[in-house]
């Protein structure tokens, strides 16, 4: 479960940083690294799934919200 949390957290951070770059500088790091291919769609989908995992498991993993 810890590995799932770490991977999903990393993907959420990567997604958030990419959105920050797009918002502030109109620079899409994911598309720059992978091109405008189907692979970018896979990455965006994984980031979305990771966000759902983080939302669902947050309370159990967060010390401030009542986790262990």
UniProtKB/TrEMBL annotation:
Q: Which UniProt keywords apply?
A: Membrane, Transmembrane, Transmembrane helix
Q: Where does the sequence pass through the membrane?
A: 7-27, 33-53
Q: Does the keyword Transcription regulation apply?
A: no
Q: Show the Pfam families listed in the entry.
A: DUF378
Q: Which domain of life is it from?
A: Bacteria
PANTHER family from the entry? MEMBRANE PROTEIN, MEMBRANE PROTEIN-RELATED
Q: What is this protein called?
A: DUF378 domain-containing protein
The species this protein belongs to is Candidatus Roizmanbacteria bacterium RIFCSPLOWO2_01_FULL_40_42
């Amino acid at each position: 479960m810890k590995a799932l949390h770490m991977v999903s957290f990393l993907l959420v951070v990567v997604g958030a940083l990419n959105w920050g770059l797009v918002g502030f500088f109109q620079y899409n790091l994911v598309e720059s690294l992978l091109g405008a291919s189907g692979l970018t769609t896979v990455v965006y989908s994984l980031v979305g799934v990771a966000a759902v995992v983080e939302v669902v498991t947050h309370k159990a993993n967060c010390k401030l919200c009542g986790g262990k």
